[in-house]
Amino acid sequence: MADQEEFIEQDEIIEEQVLDDQDNGPIPMDDDDDNAEVEDEVEDEASINETNNEEMVELVDDSVQGFFGHKDSVYAVDIHPIDQNIIVSGGGDEKSFLWRSDTGEQICELSGHSDTVQSVLFSKDGQYVASGGMDGKVFVWKVDNRELIASLEGPDEVVWLDWHPKGTILLAGANDGTMWMWQIPSGNCMNVFSGHAGPVTAGQFTPDGKKIVSGSEDSSLILWDPKTAAASLKISREDARFHREGITSLAINKESALILTGSTDGSAILVNLSNGADAIIKLQWHLDSPLLTTCSADRTVRLWDGRTGNNEKTWHGHQDSILGFALSKYESNIRLIFMEL
């Protein structure tokens, strides 16, 4: 009896292997499949590590109150000069808010800007609050009833605001190199100041209200007469003793005599405004003392009280700019050594 052919049924197949042409055994799996499996394992491990790291991060919050009404970055805040619980803030969501720092309660929204609010500021008497934006607009409201009393235009993007220390006069520095000054509440433009070649990045009235000081991205510092808009002093990078890069901040002592400027070049320079003349070249604190000594291009050396800003003593004698000095540390009487240009 002849042998009969045998057939394998489908349900009897346990595993199927594909052989190459030389019958060298099964063809290996695709590398892509291997890589995909490895990548999945790495991603799973990374996800686990990320979760563990998140669990290990300890969030610290030392604040006593918070306000969360803004939907974008907050760029400016100010505290009411009379009621310290009233705060104003401005942000990238084109909005300003009045809110209470004791409760976190929103008092009101100050709207109207169509671009980022870069500056907000209460007037010195607390009667008004102003906001300035990148849309070139300045708005002023009465604080007590939140009434909009002035809508001001003229400058390019508003960088900062400052109120006159003794009146309702508002000053704004702009990205186009100008400053604008208005009388409030009338909104009348009193003066436009032009002299910088770059954005006016910092500025303010002197504490006595008699002058305006402004600093620019072009590294220049200008002292202005508010009444005439005339510049009485200008220092720029052409003066080798001054900043080489843009001015970012400034502060004036309460005697309106000294101004400290900060720059993107990493330096801080003290300038003497009391004589409307030359820059201070060197300054040095006294050991274990609040006293500060400066020498200047005005040919003087001055002793200052750092607590009050008062000029305690002035030494004269040089006929040209004083380039430096040294303070003795070991004698009861301070010894000064000066160098002249």
From TrEMBL:
CDD domains: WD40
Region (Disordered): 1-39
Keywords attached to this entry: Repeat, WD repeat
Positions of WD repeats: 67-109, 110-151, 161-192, 193-234, 273-314
Pfam entry (one): WD40
PANTHER family cross-referenced by the UniProt entry: ANGIO-ASSOCIATED MIGRATORY CELL PROTEIN (PTHR19857:SF8), MITOCHONDRIAL DIVISION PROTEIN 1-RELATED (PTHR19857)
Name of the featured protein: 8588_t:CDS:1
Gene source species: Dentiscutata erythropus
